[in-house]
Amino acid sequence: MGSKMVFMALVVATAIRFANCNLEGEVLYEWKTKLMDPFKVLASWDPTLVNPCRWFHVTCNGENSIVRVDLGNAGLSGPLIPQLGHLTNMQYFMVFGNEINGTIPKELGNWKELVGLGLQKNLLSGPIPASLGQLKSLRFMTLNSNKLTGTIPVEVLELVLWGDLQTLNVSDNHFKGRVHPADPTGYAVTTITQDPKIKSV
After folding, report:
1. Does 2-194 carry CATH code 3.80.10.10?
2. Would the pTM of this model clear 0.85, i.e. be above it?
3. CA-CA distance, 201 to 199, in Å (whole number)?
C-alpha cells in the first residue's frame, strides 16, 4: 500500500511539472507569434513539442522550468508581452541588440529569481516600470540605447543602494529632469551611470 502511495505521488508530481512546462511553452510560443523573425532563429519553438526545454535559445532547470532565454543579436522585432511575467523562475533574459519595441511590461517584476536583464540596443519606449524594483536578486540590468522616457523609479535605484544590483546602464535614452524627487543619490539622469557603484557595459 505504501509503495502504491509513493508511486501515485510521483505521478502527480510529474503531471504538475509537465503542466507547468506546457504553460511556459505556451507563453514563449505566444511571444513568438508577435515577433518578426527573418533569420528563423525561433524555428524550434514548436508548440507540438511538449517540452520547451528542447527549444533552442532556452535553458531550463532540473524541474523543467525555464530559467534562461538567450536571443541577443538575433534580428528579432516586435514587442515584449505581459504574459512573459508567468515565467516566474527566469534568471537571465537576454534579448539585446534586436529591434524589440513597445514598452517594458510591468509583469516582468514577477521574475523574483532574475539575476540578469539584458534589453540594451533595442527600440523600447515608455517608462521603466517601478515593478522592476521588486527584483531583489537582480545583479545587472542593461537598458541603454533604447528610447525610454520619464525618470528612473526610486524603487530601481534602491536596488543599487541597498540590493545586489551591481550594474545599471540606462545611458542613451530620452530621460529628462531628475531621477525622482526623492532620489536618494541626488544624481541627475544624465549622470546616473557615473555613480561609482554602477558600472557601464
Report:
1. yes
2. no
3. 6
